[in-house]
Amino acid sequence: MIRAYKFLLRPTTRQAAVLGEMLRDHCSLYNGALQERRDAFRHTSKTTVRYGDQSAQLKEIRAFDSERQGRWSFSSQQATLRRLDKAFQAFFKRVKAGQTPGYPRFKGVGYFDTVTFPKDGDGCRWDSTPHDPVTRVRLQGVGHIRVHQHRPVQGRVKTISLKREGTRWYVVLSCDEVPAELLPPTGAIVGIDMGVAHFLTTSDGEHVANPRFLAAMADELADAQRHLATFPKRTRERTKRHRATARKVAKLHTKIRRQRADFHHKTALTLVRDHDVIAHERLSTAGMTKAPAPKADPDAPGSFLPNGAAAKAGLNRSILDAGWTQFLGILANKAESAGRLTIPVDARNTSRTCLDCGHVAKENRVTQAKFQCTACGFTANADHVGAANVLNRAGLALCDAA
Asked: Given Cys at both, which of 109, 207, 313, 382 links 371, Cβ 3.0 to 4.6 Å?
């Protein structure tokens, strides 16, 4: 299996400053390569510059700017150029598919937070020896940095990434050949229904409360954002007070993200430990949180009818606060590592299908919490009905596979 390990770095003050310089120089390389592609397309008969062309220029760039670009790893700079190339590949793919393209944009220094080293030992070396209680990672141009390694690394280290989150630095190891840590079988199978009133409901009738981390800190976050918005544009990022306020907003968002991830990991671990097979809905969060299309008023050209955008915005915020996509990804990874099975099923009408007679109707879902079949009168909790239908569909999928 392939797994990633993320550890906190303990750089000295000097090392932290050098790490910041490395990010800025890679950001400059990324933006310069993007500018070259834009200029070639606009001014040279729409000529396309590819990764191979820009990678071949790296030697000249490093020789010309030896004090900045020349002191960093050659392979990490190639990885930065590949990152830009992937952005263009995704752009052209969206153009061909008729989607909103989203042309690759220039990166500000505060938005370029990751440098990747494609191979362990080439510009970056993971130095973890059994007899040494202190773990270090060696970076070209920086030196040996202490690592807070809170768990052992298994498998073979393939790529190493350096990541900045706020004022903290992390190292991310991508490892392959990681052995599975199989859990003893339990003989239990469960279906789960995701929601916003309850984070999830199991087919056994158990509800897991939705912590609503974003809503809990909404007032504090709104105050900090209002304070940040009071600074005039001409002074932004030039004053100490503005930078301190921006750091406060970022710190609040980081806290919310960590709380959510911690909750997802613990909830997924509980499900994996207690069940051999876990069925869940196949959800498209991006589609569910799209803004409603505007409705033109036929009687007043240039005007629009109410389309429920304000109410939909509140629902979208709740869905994104729950973080269903992140949770299901964590659940799938933990299940694979433990030798468990996850089965995604079609989510359509799971909360509108009667468990007793199989009647499907929108009217069966009386309220957010109540299900009452209009055909046979069966009554139950709507989320519980959804979870039970998810489990039934997973059983049919297992039978078809067999």
From this structure: 382
Nearest to 266 by CA among 211, 190, 316: 211
Are 252 and 164 in contact by the 8 Å Cβ rule? The answer is: no
CB atoms within 10 A of CB 313: 13
Q: Say how many CA atoms lie within 13 Å of 197 toward its Cβ.
A: 11
Tell which residue, 383, 326, 7, 15, has the closest CA to residue 172: 7
Q: Sign of the C-alpha dihedral, residues 111, 255, 198, 309?
A: negative
Q: Does domain 189-217+244-401 have CATH number 3.30.420?
A: yes
Neighbouring CB atoms inside 10 A of 367's CB total 8
Contact yes or no for 343/279 (Cβ under 8 A): yes
pLDDT (tens digit per residue) in 203-247: 999 999 999 999 999 999 999 999 988 888 776 567 888 888 888
Q: What is the pLDDT of residues 327-354, one digit of tens each?
A: 999 999 999 999 999 999 999 999 999 9
